[in-house]
Amino acid sequence: MKKLLTPLLIVIAALIGGTGVCRADDEARPVVSSYTLGVGSASLTDTYLTPLHYRGTTWQADYRRLQAAPFHPEKLTMKLGVNLDVAQTHNPAGNATMWEAMLTADWGVMRRWSLLPTLTLAIGGEVRLQGGAFYNARNGNNPASAKAAATIGLTGLASYTFRIGRLPIRAVYQPSLPALGAFFSPEYGQLYYEIYLGERRGLAHCAWWGNYFALDHLLAFDLQLGRTQLRLGYQGRYLSTHVNRLSSTASANLFVIGITTEWLSLSPRKPSPIPLIHAY
Questions:
Q1: How far apart are CA 251 and CA 216, in angstroms?
Q2: What is the pTM for the complete model shown?
Q3: How far apart (Å, rounded) are the C-alpha atoms in residues 177 and 155?
Q4: Is the peptide bond before 186 cis (omega within 30 degrees of 0)?
Q5: Partner residues linked to 167 by β-bridges
């Protein structure tokens, strides 16, 4: 796992370091940033902790950033996302609680096409890092199940602008589909105390759609009330793993609300006016 995570982190740090406003003197790339909070239903299963299915409520804080890439900005769009979600679920009898906390970060580049003045489509690849845990206090001996993964996969974007009366609205759809990578899982019956003592062989597993399937997608509407836009939408998340006779699933359906802003930082040395290359 470390051998895979180290180069991925280096690549992400290097690429994110170049996501600022374009350094060229003949163009500028506005940044589209979205900040949302979400609440909805959650469903958890983890046979390492319990064979029962748990259902409850999930909350999340989400940040997304889009910007034309510094390389081929007229064709490429970069994306960056950070998501923190916490879920509280209960067993069918209602006498046990299982918590889930997960932090996800992704970075990607997409090739975009402006098919119409109001319609933009894009598709590309992304790198995703994810870590967190399930916690079931009812298990006194081994109450937690750690989660960690580093993957590469597909991502996309669809943007369509329309009006309701005089109100401009941008509809945005953003899916993410990890395809290949590595994820953490202990052996069946292996205690974390044994891992702490040094029994660490076989903890990293190759992730592919046969044993690791994840889908994250957002459908949002940005109501352009002014420079700051009101974002309303739906976000769905699904993660399923199966390895070492252990199965784990986590799904959520959320209503999200927040704001979207488009901002631009210009150097006083740059000429004015400067052509703008937008993320959408």
A1: 10
A2: 0.84
A3: 6
A4: no
A5: 164
